[in-house]
Design a protein that fits this description.
Layout lengths: L4 H18 L25 H4 L2 H4 L17 E10 L7 H16 L6 H8 L15 H17 L6 H5 L3 E5 L3 H17 L10 E2 L1 H4 L1 H4 L1 H8 L6 H7 L2 H14 L8 H18 L11 H19 L4 H5 L2 H19 L8 E6 L1 H10 L24 H4 L5 E8 L5 E7 L2 E2 L15 H7 L1 H5 L3 H5 L7
Parallel strand pairs: 1-4, 2-3, 2-4
Antiparallel strand pairs: 1-5, 5-6, 6-7
């Protein structure tokens, strides 16, 4: 019986369409009118997709070839992931600032630009104080999608069998945005494998995931110490930031004294939140050009540097407890594997905050520049590696993967935001996956010391 012409035509079009898709030219995010030109400068308020732009096209895309273990016989035996919560609403503190700016724009701005009229006549202030940092639907999806991608990257570890067998452990901060991110990560896996007959527990552990609250020395000397962020305050009152606030005032046609550094930050956050939460290129973004955005990014990096990273030694040492926790899990997996047992904890998923991840990355030595970030060296820090926009978007993650490559050869691969990174100081190791023993040797002083109780007690000399 002859095949009808329409079926041949359909088959032909399907093949042609499929062929074309294979050669689809990836869209450049900078050419997309729905993405703010300044989106890559949003620091800790940035989308994960700006760090990995290929996800804009396919949110579940992975490339296993990036893993490149030293030999084909290497197999993954353990994975620890420390993950920041997903996209969230602004905190009540920031909502208040945003409301104040909105009132200024609504009642005082006299500029004639179409984007300004759009804010004044069409945009409404929909953020409320009771939102206070809660996870949004985009944040739910951030973790669901990350879970699926990790299962595709590491199918022998993040598997239905391991989940059902109790070999995957979930730990979270008590904050609602973290608990809900953890639930979302689990849902990503249970929906992927259509698991409806079983639920999986998680443990709330603030000692691990909010160590910064419990480190008395950090709280007193940095967190609650007004002078600890003097470099940040100086930059916010300095010439670079003043130029940004004056340009915003000019665009709005309001007096210069009306737009403070706080109001500039509120405008930047409005642009960032509208994009992260609603995927909207908001008219608020028109208050900044790229030069302004770079200044705003530096102001935020400066704050993170002095409050959570290399600014003070206690910032990184406050994460000693999480550092030891990670290595004790790796050691246990290595020991069980060596004795021929099944590794009892194949995967550890730990969900916390930017403030959880940054001190740990700092303790491990990542993104350290030759010079400290200060209020005076903005111009010379243009090429700095310490850039929170790249390091700490929503759902940022540090993944440590332990491989058994046979003959007692254990390897450890670090990935940041699903991209392989190299342990600082281990650059000469074979490929990017050094021997686990070499990593332990490299961090020997921290492994032998770095005691949380000792580091965090108030009797130590000031940072």
């Amino acid at each position: 019986m002859p095949i009808p012409f329409w079926k041949i035509l359909f088959l032909h079009l399907t093949i042609i369409t499929g062929f074309c898709c294979c050669f689809h030219i990836k869209e450049n995010p900078q050419d997309n009118p729905n993405i703010p030109a300044i989106a890559k400068y949003f620091s800790t308020k940035g989308r994960y997709e700006e760090v990995n732009p290929y996800l804009i096209e396919d949110i579940l895309a992975v490339n296993r070839s990036i893993l490149q273990p030293p030999s084909a016989q290497c197999r993954e035996i353990h994975l620890t992931a420390v993950i920041r919560h997903g996209t969230r609403y602004p905190t009540s503190k920031n909502v208040k600032k945003m409301q104040k700016l909105y009132d200024i724009v609504l009642h005082n701005a006299s500029g004639k630009a179409s984007w300004l009229r759009e804010i004044q006549t069409q945009w409404t202030m929909w953020y409320t104080e009771d939102m206070d940092g809660r996870l949004v639907q985009k944040g739910v999806n951030d973790h669901k999608h990350l879970a699926v991608r990790l299962s595709k990257l590491f199918p022998s570890l993040v598997s239905e069998e391991k989940l059902r067998g109790g070999f995957i452990k979930f730990i979270t901060s008590s904050k609602h945005r973290c608990v809900n991110s953890t639930l979302s990560f689990k849902a990503g896996l249970t929906e992927l494998w259509a698991i409806t007959d079983k639920e999986f527990d998680h443990a709330v552990n603030d000692a691990l995931m909010r160590f910064f609250d419990r480190c008395a020395r950090f709280v007193q000397e940095v967190d609650k110490n007004p002078s600890a962020l003097s470099e940040v305050d100086q930059f916010r009152q300095g010439p670079e930031m003043r130029r940004v606030t004056e340009k915003i005032a000019d665009r709005l046609r309001v007096p210069y004294n009306v737009i403070t550094d706080d109001m500039a930050e509120a405008a930047f956050y409005l642009c960032a939140y509208e994009f992260a939460i609603r995927t909207v290129n908001s008219p608020w973004c028109r208050l900044f050009d790229e030069v302004d955005a770079q200044v705003m990014e530096y102001a935020n990096d400066l704050k993170q540097f002095w409050k959570r990273a290399y600014g003070y030694d206690i910032n990184r040492k406050s994460s000693c407890i999480l550092f030891h926790d990670a290595f004790s899990r790796l050691d246990k997996a290595a020991e069980e594997n060596k004795s021929g047992q099944q590794v009892t904890e194949a995967v550890t998923v730990q969900v916390g905050h930017a403030e959880t991840l940054l001190p740990l990355l700092t303790l491990l030595g990542f993104f350290e520049d030759s010079e400290a970030l200060t209020s005076k060296n903005y111009a010379t820090q243009a090429q700095r590696s310490f850039r929170t926009s790249h390091m700490l978007p929503y759902a940022a993650n540090l993944v440590l993967v332990l491989y058994d490559c046979g003959g007692g050869d254990l390897r450890l691969q670090p990935l940041l935001n699903e991209k392989p990174v190299t342990f600082p100081g281990l650059n000469n190791q074979q490929a990017s996956i050094p021997r686990y023993q070499d990593v332990r040797e490299h961090y020997r002083e921290l492994l032998q010391g770095c005691d949380f109780e000792t580091e965090c007690q108030l009797s130590k000399s000031p940072a």
